[in-house]
Amino acid sequence: xxxxxxxxxxxxxxxxxxxxxxxxxxxxxxxxxxxxxxxxxxxxxxxxxxxxxxxxxxxxxxxxxxxxxxxxxxxxxxxxxxxxxxxxxxxxxxxxxxxxxxxxxxxxxxxxxxxxxxxxxxxxxxxxxxxxxxxxxxxxxxxxxxxxxxxxxxxxxxxxxxxxxxxxxxxxxxxxxxxxxxxxxxxxxxxxxxxxxxxxxxxxxxxxxxxxxxxxxxxxxxxxxxxxxxxxxxxxxxxxxxxxxxxx
Length: 248
Hints:
Elements: E1 3-5, E2 13-18, E3 22-27, E4 36-40, E5 54-59, H1 63-66, E6 68-75, E7 80-89, E8 92-108, E9 119-121, E10 127-130, E11 153-157, H2 162-165, E12 187-190, E13 195-200, E14 207-211, E15 219-223, E16 234-235, E17 238-239, H3 240-246
Antiparallel strand pairs: 1-2, 2-3, 3-4, 5-6, 6-7, 7-8, 9-10, 10-11, 11-12, 13-14, 14-15, 16-17
């Protein structure tokens, strides 16, 4: 089990995400004895290693009318993270349509860990997705500080354009929207090691993220647009690169 959520559709159901590629659905009742398979994508999910697999699930803000939900999973050959949209089966609300996949975004992963994996809609209706630094100790490719990659960042995209243009769009108020410097304009914030889970305060709209540290620090951050959260220069409040040199 990696995640438990609901569809915000007043159905009183819970959706349980299993790393191997299953989403189960059941009534939010401690006495329930019925569990159904909502989505089964085990054939395309790579869960060979402990930080890969089906890692995230979120439902569209208009799920009750459009039936869309979004998943984040690891795939192989090549190793990559995939964001895909699916639709519910119109004849059975407890089952997804397995043939409805629309891949939105794929990001190559250099290693088998630090995949991040969470995605969530903000109060603004945009989709936020967390990517780890790509893995291996110390972020050897310096992805956390590299704005030309989505690794090591939280991105913010608009998926409402998918049915009109076939692709997502980037909100005009993203901090790097329409830049000419090679910066990925999807990036909302960067310098993160592995933002495995985050949540959004529904009253304030603030994003609270748990960023996994390497040795000495775990972080809880409030995400602000364009802000650099330090990795791999800093690990929390510690100077990571200096401490690494001193430990050699």
